[in-house]
Amino acid sequence: MSSMSLSVKNMLSVSAIAIVMSLSAAPALAQETQEAAAPAAPEAAADEGAEIVVTAQFREQALQDTPLAITAITADSLANRSFTSTAEIASTAPNVQLRVANSAFGNTLQAFIRGIGQGDYNYATEPGVGVYIDDVYYSTTFGAVFDLLDLERVEVLRGPQGTLFGKNSIGGAIRLVSKKPRGTGEGYVEATYGSFNRIDVRGSADIPLIQDQLAVRIAASAKNREGYQKLLDFACARPDLNVSVDPDATYNGVPNRAGNPSSCKLGEYGGQDVQSGRVALSYFGSDTVEVNITADYMKDDSQAAADQLIAIGNGTAYNTTPGTTTGIPGLLVGWNNNVNIPTFGVPFDARFLTNDPYTTYATYDDVARGIETSRKSTVESWGVNGTVDINLTDTIALKSVSAYRTYNGHFAHDPDQSPLVLENVDNYLNHEAFSQELRLSGTAVDDRLFWTFGGFYFDATGKLEGMVAIYPIGLAFSQKDKVTITNKSVFAHGEFEVTDRLTAIAGIRYTDETKTYFFNHPPFITNGGEPYESTAKFDRVDYRFTAKYDVTDDVNVYATYSTGFRGGGVNPRPFTPAQLIPFGPEVVEAYELGFKTSLFDNRLRLNGAAFRTDFKNRQQNRQTVDNDGLPFTGPTNLGTGKIEGFELELDGRIAGFTLNGQVGYADFSTNDVGAAQGRPGTPLWTASAGAQYDYEVGSASTITPRLDWVYQSRIDYANNANDLAATPKRGIWNGRITYKNEDHNYSVALSVTNLFDKFYYVNKFTLIPFGLGTLEGQPARPREWAVTVKKSF
User: Are 273 and 302 in contact (CB under 8 A)?
Assistant: First the structure.
């Protein structure tokens, strides 16, 4: 897409948002359901000593009084760090990894907490980290890269959440809590311009419909920017090779610019085109009933993720030198001799590597067969949810959370990063889910006992369609597979104040779950015209026991034992019916010791935790053979293991100066049998630090400079710990300076991400299990600047 056409599109998006804002004084995200029978939570502010209120244990509690490893990030903190999506909040919490997947997995949020998570989008697998928006569970990693729009706060819970809200989450949970409509008339409009022709517009407004009874909050956002990786025409860039793929014929009339590689650009990757909106309606005019209804829509029409072919090899030895022809895996030799050389005049080898990670030859097309796949990674989603809070008596409340969500998505993958083809995968995803949660909560024994009983029901259907072709191994089929999931659970939770300083907490949950995979690869494999199917059924009881002791009014310690599990399922990528093999749940037992302190009139908060997680029946992909003797790679339950570590968090505020910091350590070890070893795509160490100072100018205007540093240690993406298939340790700096006027209703900010323009790979991906020997990496965004103007009203 040309810069001019993208600019026009950006202007149209900006105009559309401006019209909406002028007509309705609108925009907004959904809202956190306030627990009935509990007092209203104060707005979390950045003022000195301001307390943050969270709802991680079914009721509103001060963050420092909640005996959980939980990090809460307020709306002001998100803005101060220039965060706009869920993938960016990982740096605020220890032992948390959130990253957007590479092009092989489309628009997927790869989330890991304390070494446990999920990088795969397939519906037959289960996320290790639960994501919630206003108590609604988002059941897939695909499509979970949300915009941080009009939020009150974000809560990051670490450790298994097997007995608390929603669906079981073995590694932890991320909760996005939106601002509720209250009819205050407040709102804002914000516009950003920056690198790569970035234009973002967002805003929200809280509109009264019936004073003190009924209100609507509307939010909208449009984000656009060009890609940061160039797609080059290989035949144009390398005329010396006499490749028989003619640029004019292959790329729809693009002029032949052979001999001038600098002008051989065909397109780009890594660009963004996202629009989203949310309307929330709230009735709060009764002392006993509150009703909140929300509808949201999001369309992501972004380019495919930037992706670079790093090396070709056999998994042990790699060729990383562009232009050379050594180190070709055995399977590629025959494929080159039989297909690539006769068709294109060149073999697939290291000549398709580029010297610049911000360039690629990936066309996403199969010229030999006339197949074209999309260079985009798209998601279109919408949902509605309703929350009803009823005070049945002065001490008993009922809460209902109902939701329906659906989305469609499309993405392809070009692992050879060339105009030739090794693999062609074109994915069409469709998903819909209904969930219902009921909670009955109350107090007893002179308010010393808080109790909750509840139930959760979840029903989802996911469809996986498209083409899968791995040509060198002779595998090619179309798929119309389907996965259904039904989850039913009941739970109980209680907190009892044994003394003024000692609190005992216990929880239990029973879960019954069924997953069915319907295998349909027409027209080659059918079961009398019907799909083959395989079902995994299991049930599970999980527990949590916590003792919390207030050493002083400002210092408390706690100890927790909890369990959790990741649901089993059926092999997510069967090539034949014989490979529809079920696998069982992965279970954990977690031990945690923690402390929380609020010192100097709550101006300094220091929290820490040490933990150990023992797991068994670990789910891990393993190469094996099916009953027909055909090889395949699929999940199986292997051995036992443990994760040990600690976390420290610091938050200090005094006289206009703010300091934040965190460090996390998580050591993963396993007793698996066989060659399947290695860390699960997570670092041993994570850390971050940030500092800002509110400098007053004039009577009340402020200038606030802020500097942030984010660190993570090495991450291995291959079981053999090959250095090339790993991302080394890195530290990244970001900066921002903000001006606010005297009334603090107008601000201008200049932000710079990746301040020192450090190059690194966000993640890596290899096709070594198939014997093809390609290694890809997603280059991180380079240094970028942005100017943001915000007007509040």
Answer: yes
Kindly report, residue by residue over 673-689, the tens digit of the pLDDT. Answer: 544 444 567 899 999 99
In tens, the pLDDT along 29-70 reads: 333 333 333 333 333 333 444 678 888 877 888 899 999 999
- Classified as helix, coil or strand, 394 is coil
- The per-residue DSSP string of 445-509 comes to TTTTEEEEEEEEEEEEEEEEEEEEEEGGGTEEEEEEEEEEEEEEEEEEEEEEESSSSEEEEEEEE
Q: How much is the average pLDDT of 134-142?
A: 92
Count CB neighbours of 382 within 10 A.
14
Within 8 A by CB and 6+ apart from 286, the residues are none
Q: Alpha-carbon distance 197 to 10, whole Å?
A: 9
Matching residue, tokens 């009935």: 36
CA distances in angstroms from 169 to 123, 126, 558, 631, listed in the order given: 16, 9, 21, 32
- Please state, for a pLDDT cut of 90, what percent of the chain lies above it: 59
Distances (CA, A) of 67 to 54, 129, 273: 12, 19, 41
Q: Is 148 helix (H, G, I), strand (E, B) or coil?
A: coil
- Structure tokens, 253: 């009339």
Q: Return the residue matching tokens 């019936």.
A: 210
Residue with tokens 């290291």: 350
CATH 2.30.110.10 holds for 8-226+270-307+362-792: no
Q: Is the Cβ–Cβ distance between 237 and 264 less than 8 Å? A: yes
Here the tokens at position 683 are 């670092």
At position 102, the amino acid (one-letter code) is: N
User: Are the beta carbons of 768 and 257 closer than 8 angstroms?
Assistant: no
Give me the residue label for tokens 């311009």. 193
Here the tokens at position 201 are 């517009």
Domain boundaries, the chain: 8-226+270-307+362-792
Would you list the DSSP string of 628-671? TS-EEEEEEEEEEEEEEEEEEEEEEEETTEEEEEEEEEEEEEE-
Mean pLDDT for all residues in the chain = 86
C-alpha distance from residue 598 to each of 44, 63, 554, 609, 654 (Å): 16, 10, 5, 15, 13
Type of residue numbered 313: G
22 pLDDT tier (thresholds 50, 70, 90): very low
User: Of all helices (H) and strands (E), which one includes residue 17?
Assistant: helix 3-24
> How far from each other are the two terminal CA atoms of the chain, in whole angstroms?
37
Counting Cβ atoms within 10 Å, is residue 500 exposed (0-12), middle (13-18) or buried (19+)? exposed
Sign of the four-CA dihedral 134, 97, 85, 747 = positive
Widest CA span in the chain: 86
Predicted pLDDT of residue 249: 36
Q: Sign (positive/negative) of CA torsion 670, 676, 681, 683?
A: positive
30 φ, ψ (degrees, to nearest 5): -75, -170
What distance in Å separates the CA atoms of residue 477 and residue 524, rounded to the nearest whole number? 8
What is d(CA 459, CA 154) in angstroms, rounded to the nearest whole number?
26
Task: Indicate the helix (H) or strand (E) that contains 334.
Answer: helix 330-335
Of 776, 141, 165, the C-alpha closest to 458 is 165
Read off the tokens for 77. Answer: 């903190």
Can you give the pTM of this predicted structure? 0.88
